[in-house]
Design a protein that fits this description.
Elements lengths: L3 E7 L3 H12 L4 E5 L6 H6 L1 H19 L15 H26 L2 E4 L1 E6 L2 E5 L5 E11 L3 E3 L12 E2 L1 H4 L8 E5 L3 H12 L3 E5 L11 H14 L2 E3 L4 E7 L2 E6 L5 E3 L1 E4 L3 E3 L6 H4 L22 E3 L10 H17 L11 E3 L4 E6 L2 H6 L4 E7 L4 H5 L6 E7 L5 E8 L2 H13 L4 H6 L9 H9 L8
Parallel strand pairs: 1-2, 1-6, 2-3, 6-17, 8-15, 9-10, 9-15, 10-11
Antiparallel strand pairs: 4-5, 5-6, 7-16, 12-13, 13-14, 18-19, 19-22, 20-21, 21-22
Helix pairs in contact: 1-4, 1-9, 3-4, 3-6
The chain binds 1,4-dihydronicotinamide adenine dinucleotide (NAI).
1,4-dihydronicotinamide adenine dinucleotide (NAI) binds next to helix 6 and strand 18.
Length: 463
Amino acid sequence: MDQQFDLVVIGAGPGGYVAAIRAAQLKLKVACVESEARLGGTCLRVGCIPSKALLEASHQYHAAKHDLGAFGIEVKGVELNLAGMLKKKTDTVEQLTGGVAHLFKKNGVTRVLGHGKIAGPGKVVVTSGDGKTEELTTKNILIATGSSVAKLAGVELDGDRIGTSTEALSYPEVPKHMVVIGAGVIGLELGSVWQRLGAKVTVVEYFDRILPGMDTELGTLAKRILEKQGLSFKLGARVKAARRSGDGCVVEIEGQEPIQCDRVLLATGRVPNTDGLGLAEVGVAQGKRGDVIVDDHFRTNVPGIYAIGDVIRGAMLAHKAEEEGIACVELIATGYGHVDYNSIPSVVYTHPEIASVGRSEEQLKEAGIAYKKGSFPFSANGRAKAIGNTEGRVKILADAKTDRILGAHIIGHAAGDLIAEVAVAMAFGASAEDLARASHAHPSLAETVKEAALAAGDGAIHI
Ligand code: NAI
């Protein structure tokens, strides 16, 4: 193999592999170093994709058991085949990770299997599983090593009963009682999966609300909807410890009775992956969380070394990492590249989905920005009624003077897709009136967005 490259990307997650492909499109000679046999990183192997496969499968199972009667469909003898469900998830992961390998070939990206370590500017040493090393020389290095689960003092992870999202994607049987530590994105998504499959699920959260950081009004509504589905929440409760006890586990909470259960999912955040990368030796500056410090062009303090995604500041989201990867390699190849951080959506794939873009009401108040809001419920939308998904609402926040859209928050069926419309509108600097005046197909769920935009002005039509 010719070992001279224009760019060596370390990590083949959504940030790294997308950056590698974009760099190849821009005619750079690119290698991507990844220690896992399958490409795609946490997102494809043990994150976004397998969790969405299980969310869909568990939703279908639950709907077949409980909801189809409302459509005049009588289904008898619905049974769970957990092994079959897990196999479908694994097949999906295999197809998508294989797809990335195919894209690398198609674009001429050199894939290097092994652990990458920066040995100096322009030098990456790759150690494979059998201990062999090879040195790659390159003009530029891009760190895209992602993140891993943050440990919590006192919680004794055993890779089985007390585990992380990785274990919770493959429990061999439905837990009787699952305790989730953390009412964030992972806790709510994977808690929902096992609750739908029959587990009793208790979510313990340190703050007095779920999804801290999200718009409070929608967070409150989300809690009510999830409680109705059967999730139970212990808020304002700090987990002190979790350990094995006989065949099960015990979770200790400050000032409260301990909880006995048979599975514990730790989901209290993630930390940047920087161990063993050689950063200290090469002098790459890191922040308090261990994150790699970069400037607006994703440059570290060492010339020729860049970083993107979960390993740097900002939200830990696959699509944020992708945008940064593209902007970073475009900056390297052309001198131009940009990420619009104001219009990056975030989605929680519960049912209904919870999606946000831009600023929350609390953030606008804190910044002293005068805003108006328009809100519209799914229960007043014809399509939502027809498909039996009337829970939730759309809220659009716009500047009080200019009408420019500042944020949108949606709970409802397909909210994760509906939010894209507002994200695009925001990227173009649209006003609420622009959204309201754009024609939306009838009947469609997207009309809820149009109506919320109308409500931010003279008023919605259908309520
Ligand atoms: P998170 O930051 O979303 O939520 C963690 C929660 O744990 C917080 O609510 C926090 O207050 C709580 N917590 C912390 N210490 C606690 C304690 N001692 N006792 C009780 N509660 C405690 O983190 P999560 O869910 O682990 O997700 C990690 C990252 O992965 C996030 O950045 C998330 O955005 C990303 N992710 C995104 C997904 C998506 O976009 N759909 C899906 C899954 C993960």
